[in-house]
Design brief:
The longest helix is centred in the first third of the chain and has 10 residues, at 4-13. The strands form two sheets. Strands 3-4-5 form a three-stranded parallel sheet, covered by helices on one side. Helices cover 28% and strands 14% of the residues. The chain is an alpha/beta fold.
Length: 123
């Protein structure tokens, strides 16, 4: 999700942003603006764990979700080791938004520690 600070950072850099099907943004000729974009909260580091971490909508946006998937992802990201497989956090067994490629499938983990243990076991 794009936040107001992210949109503000984008507005200072450009008036044209391309949104890709892979949930990323393309900003032409923005290499010199990466610090401003990062300060606004956008991921600009190719080693960022956010580039391999996905989550379904989760609660409270989905009545079937057992957990706040996005909250768990925010807590998990700083503890996720660099490199490795994609990780998808689902709030229920429906696994909405699951990536097509190989990934670690986390279904309603009760905690970040439980999620990290499942990721380590999947290596």
């Amino acid at each position: 999700l794009l936040t107001a600070p992210m949109l503000d950072a984008l507005a200072t850099v450009t008036d044209r942003v391309l949104v890709t099907p892979w949930r990323s943004l393309v900003i032409e000729d923005a290499a010199s603006d990466l610090p401003a974009l990062a300060a606004g909260g956008l991921v600009t580091d190719p080693a960022s764990p956010w580039l391999r971490l996905h989550a379904c909508t989760g609660s409270p946006g989905c009545a079937r979700s057992e957990i706040d998937t996005r909250g768990l992802a925010r807590a998990l990201a700083p503890r996720l080791a660099s490199g490795g497989r994609q990780v998808h956090v689902s709030g229920c067994v429906r696994r909405c938004g699951t990536p097509a490629s190989g990934h670690v499938d986390l279904v309603a983990p009760a905690s970040v520690d439980e999620a990290l243990a499942a990721i380590a076991a999947a290596r």
